[in-house]
Amino acid sequence: MKRLEEFTKKDWQVCHWLGTKETFHHLATSKEKTQSQNIVKPLHWYVACRLVIEGGFQPDEIKPHPPFKAVKKGKSHLLHFDPDAASGSEATVLGGLKTKGVDVVVEKPGIGPAIAISCKTTGKAFRNLTNRMEEAVGECTNLHMTYAALVIGFFSVLRAHRAGNDPALADNDVVLQKDGNPVDGIVRYHEAFRQLEGRTDLRNTISKYEAVSLALVETSGPDTGELLDTFPPKESPLRFERFFETIYRRYDERFVFAAPILATRNVTPRVEWDSNSPLFNGDLLMQLREAPQLDYEPRISTRA
After folding, report:
1. What is the per-residue pLDDT across 43-78, written as a single tens digit (0 to 9) for each?
2. Are 205 and 199 in contact (CB under 8 A)?
3. Annotated domain spans of the chain
4. Rounded to 5 degrees, what are φ and ψ at 118?
5. What region, left, alpha or beta, does residue 113 occupy, with left being phi > 0 and alpha being psi -120 to 50 degrees?
6. Cβ 226 vs Cβ 217: under 8 Å
7. Of 10, 54, 106, 224, which residue is the least packed, with the fewest Cβ within 10 Å?
8. What secondary structure letter does DSSP report for 268?
9. pTM, whole model, 2 decimals?
10. 154-170 pLDDT, tens per residue?
11. Closest CA to 4 of 30, 28, 33
């Protein structure tokens, strides 16, 4: 498989199967201009692929369409690697005030959008984070006005520039002080989003997200591309490792447990993939040579 820095213009037009390591390393080191979508697209692809492999959602339910194909054989669900199935198109969701293109959407047939995840990256000029918060509130409110049950996630990634590492960086481009602690602006950003996450009930305020992740990615030294482990704090609901499990929990509560008729008809339950799926087969991984190393557990069926 090609490395991201080797991608052609055509490669950037469709979703690719990426792991955590290459996704965040790209976000930390990309030389693309700030406005370029090629900085954040790999994050869209990573989320879309993870929703299939770990989340158990059908590839055909997701935009952008991941490079996978699902085949049902008897009671088994087999997952195949299929780059020809991939697309790069995003979904347009009907909002209460306007339609909105959303980075990653899961849409259940006959029900409509069930999960919507917005991905944002910020490389510098962190003084503009206030604008980002205002945009986030508006986007969430707009979508919840039409779809009260919609599980909305906000995935924010910041390049964790350290003070003193690059004399060309302006003060507003620095995320971490020399002692490793975040600057005040980043702490305020974190606290603001703590107030905007955690919508658990359909009757809760529509301006809150079901899940928010704030990830700081190292941009220098031997840990380049790694997520900062010291911030957000360990107890923070904005920790990256809590994001997907929260998305799945909110989805199950609303679309599976609260709708038993749809569940018994296999409309809403998340799929468990057969362990013999070609995607998890060692021979296929040898053919791919550099298939992503997963640091999350695939949703595998335990049936004998």
Report:
1. 999 999 999 999 999 999 999 999 999 999 999 999
2. yes
3. 1-89+272-304, 92-268
4. -100, 130
5. beta
6. yes
7. 10
8. S
9. 0.94
10. 999 999 998 877 777 77
11. 30
